[in-house]
Write a structure and sequence with these properties.
Strand order of the largest sheet: 10-14-13-15-16-21-20-19-17-18
Strand content: 25-35%
Number of strands: 21
Radius of gyration: 20 Å
Structural class: alpha/beta
Largest sheet: 10 strands, mixed
Order of helices and strands: EEEHEEEEHEHEHEEEEHEHEHEHEEEEEH
Helix content: 10-25%
Number of helices: 9
Distance between the termini: 67 Å
Length: about 375
Amino acid sequence: MKAILVLEDGSSFPGENFGAAGEGVGEVVFNTSMTGYQEILTDPSYFGQIVCMTYPLIGNYGINIEDVESRKIFLSGFIVKECSDYPSNFRSSLTLGEYLKSNNVVGIHSIDTRALTRKLRDKGAQQGIISTSDFDVENLLKKLKSAPGLVGRDLVHGVTCNQSYEWEEGEWTLSSGYSHGIPLIKEGILKVAALDFGIKANILRMLIQSGCAVKVFPASVTADEILAEEPDGIFLSNGPGDPEGVPYAINTVKTLIGQKPIFGICLGHQILSLALGGKTYKLKFGHHGANHPVKEVESGKVEITSQNHGFAVDIDSLKDVTLTHVNLNDQTVEGFRCNNYPVFSVQYHPEASPGPHDSSYLFQDFRKMMIEFKKNEK
């Protein structure tokens, strides 16, 4: 079946459909990861976006349900150079096309993804539409003009959980799959309240492996409801879109600062900065991939990181914070800590999935912060 991708600047890319038939509208971004397409598909941070993979062959190891990062695919469309219909992987249970179709997500392949990526790098991320039913470019442009963008929208409400729940799944091993239960750790189990702005499963698994009992809360939870659980620490998750679109979450975090140790990732990092009185801004084409170099300012150590965000924090707008991490590609802020409170955050994804594990130490840093805070409380 034929398909077409049209961007808001009027450029079009005819190709072939895989996955579901129909139309998908969203902000088109590119991801530079060579592997991990299943985790990318199920990352709620891509809600409202269409993802183009820069690696040319996608789908060659199929789909394995154990590797999903959330309850479904949240992105609006998927773009690849070549989609493999013949996966080679003993864990695979579906092809990529079958998985997209079962989630009603439209895909397009057999287009020049290198040319598309170059356009997005030069002009920036822009709205796009994939269609398998309408091939009139002018008509598709009209549909794009009527579609909402990302700036100012509350996308979190579309990905967060409906009610709180406890998480018990730990790391995966080849011999036994995912572990269940919290590992015995010398200092004992710590209670963590995780605010779900679009949380990835591997973040929760990493918290479990760090010796934490995790309870996940909807983004609409109040500060009083969180504190009533008497957690040892509070985690602010990743999520989609513009952090300024979720003022209720900003106000909740503002109330929580100083009452318990806080660790934020990605959107949680941005929401934290706004709660501290700072500002955020939209990046030209965002950071999406598993190979972004980040420098830890204090030690000079470089970490290769997994990233997925379209907004960044303006460090000059924040007071009483210390810059901890910087992106070596464009010098944007990748992490900070508060000088007066047990609070820190990073823009990138230390839980990876997909990506390198260079930054997994941050979960242990969070644990140490909670232990120190408990000692001082006594």
